[in-house]
Amino acid sequence: MEIRDLLQKDLMIMNLKATTKAEAIDEMIDKYVASGVVTDRETYKKGILEREQESTTGIGDEIAMPHAKTNAVKEAAVLFAKSSDGVDFDALDGKPVKLFFMIAAPEGANNAHLQALAKLSGLLIDPTLVNNLKSTRTPDDVLKCFEDAEAAKETVDANEEKQSSNVDADGKPFIVAVSACPNGIAHTYMAEAALIKAAKEKNINIKVETNGSEGVKNKLTAAEIEKADGVIVTADKKVAMARFDGKQLLNRPVIDGINKADQLIDQIENNEGTTFHSTESNDDTEEATDGSFWNEIYKDLMNGISHMLPFVVGGGIIMAISFMLERYVGQNSMWFTFPNNIGTYAFSFLIPILAGFIAQSIGDLPALMPGVVGGFMATQAAASVVHTTSVSGFIGGLIAGFAAGVFVNFLKKAFKWVPKSLEGLKPMLIYPILGLLLVGGLMFFIVNPVFAAVNAWVTSFLESMGTGNAVLLGTLLGGMMAIDMGGPFNKAAYAFAIAAFTSTKSGNLMAAVMIGGMIPPLATAIATTIWPKKFTQQEREAGISNWVLGLSFITEGAIPFATADPLRVIISSVIGSAIGGGLSQLWKVSVPAPHGGLWVLPLADHKLLYLAAVVIGAVIAGAILGIWKPKLEENK
């Protein structure tokens, strides 16, 4: 099969009308559905969106290659679309995308289809082809561009093998590489082509093993690995790593193989890689030590956050509406209690869902239930082994999620001996019961008691301070509201302010904690608005919601950001919240209400100063976060 068989004229959009990423995806899918290539629109779209969540397919240089492999595709095809103005597609270089190649592959795509897809993907690293495609006007022009590119490549490759089996015969430096991505129908082969091209330009021999839809191709031999100066792994899925034991190795996402091939080869030749050590010689899933461990943690966190966000946004917005209504209808009105209870119920799932889907990312479906229960325990002020009560909040939820995943993976290895006739017992009995006991025991005997002790110490410390130094106390309380956003520090600060409020009827300290709790979500809203390219699409959408959540004193809106990037988010939030809390006491602001955020502004003393403390603290925190956070592509 040739590329022209995949690039059909009736599957080309020469003037894409979409102006957003979502619109572009829908417009291209509609074309597929109309042509009959895609038989189930929603199933195919789900596959496209799931691939985008793993990492953007906007590879840079104004190109995007969204793709999916599902049983909703009738036959393999590539849809070409061209946008004259460009579309913000979350591309890695931040540039709008003008050329789209949406790939549709059936679950059982044959080798001819897959080889044609690999060939097309490899051609797209040619800058001449890309520039020519940008000036095309008709489908015939597009086909002519690819025919010319194929002919040029065949001429260049006519007298040389793509990957020589006797790579060290000429005395040139030699590198081996592995390229792989989850679907294996585009990025795998673009990275392969880019690495080969870069090595050739540097007069270096290279052999690239691909792990795509066709399976493993150009498999590296033990002799080739032994001779190599170093190893480059550009993969978004696990590949056999133990064979590289003792070699200089770079482990990077597959997109780096496409966009940073020159840099990766230079790093190997300059001995800037990490010496890889495998703990087990037959462990095919062993990861490299130069960052892949943290990449896995980040992916696990993102799985939890993406499932938690709907609860944050939906519950938070409804709860904010209830606070607005409360001013007019009162606390006892059904119009307040109904939306407030709905929002509260949604919020009660935040930490359990976060923990459960972190666990699922690590240990698959068997880890989901222990993770959810462990996360739920982190939110419940239940008596623990030390006979005290406390919640561990989102920090405890993170511990529960990762622990559940690790425990279930341990159980999978521990019960490998179970005969096949009893395999059904493992997911039905062994993993749920033992996994839950292990996670529950960890939370009951260790995590919650530790946080209970922390809570007791913090409360005692605050009580010892008294109210003699109001500004210092306001600064401390405001900062504590942002440390763990619902954990023991946050609860202790809020409880201390409530105690002062109920005993003295003074709302001074209540102003400090309310401002401190409003600032973290407002800071993330500010940062995502001013520095959008430093945040994912999901984070930008959550940032919009956080304007409302922050104004409503719903600190939990910042939890997804704090979970994904705890150091930057928490430190910037604590600084801003501490400043806001201190200013409230310096200006003698008083808020005679235990909740409501800015919706209770009419009740506050020194209303403008209350507003100023919130704005100053939020702007400082947002600016620190936005400036400190690196560009999004550096986090990939």
TrEMBL record:
Which GO BP terms apply? phosphoenolpyruvate-dependent sugar phosphotransferase system
Q: Which Pfam families does this UniProt record tie to the protein?
A: PTS_EIIA_2, PTS_EIIC, PTS_IIB
Key words, A-Z: Cell membrane, Membrane, Phosphoprotein, Phosphotransferase system, Sugar transport, Transferase, Transmembrane, Transmembrane helix, Transport
Stored PROSITE patterns: PTS_EIIA_TYPE_2 (PS51094), PTS_EIIA_TYPE_2_HIS (PS00372), PTS_EIIB_TYPE_2 (PS51099), PTS_EIIC_TYPE_2 (PS51104)
Source organism's superkingdom? Bacteria
Tell me the compartments it is located in: Cell inner membrane; Cytoplasm
Carries keyword Plastid? no
Per the UniProt record, which residue ranges are transmembrane?
Answer: 308-330, 342-362, 382-408, 429-458, 470-489, 509-532, 608-628
UniProt keyword Metal-binding present: no
Q: Where is the PTS EIIA type-2 domain?
A: 5-149
Q: What is this protein called?
A: Fusion of IIA, IIB and IIC component of mannitol fructose-specific phosphotransferase system
Source lineage: Bacteria, Bacillati, Bacillota, Bacilli, Lactobacillales
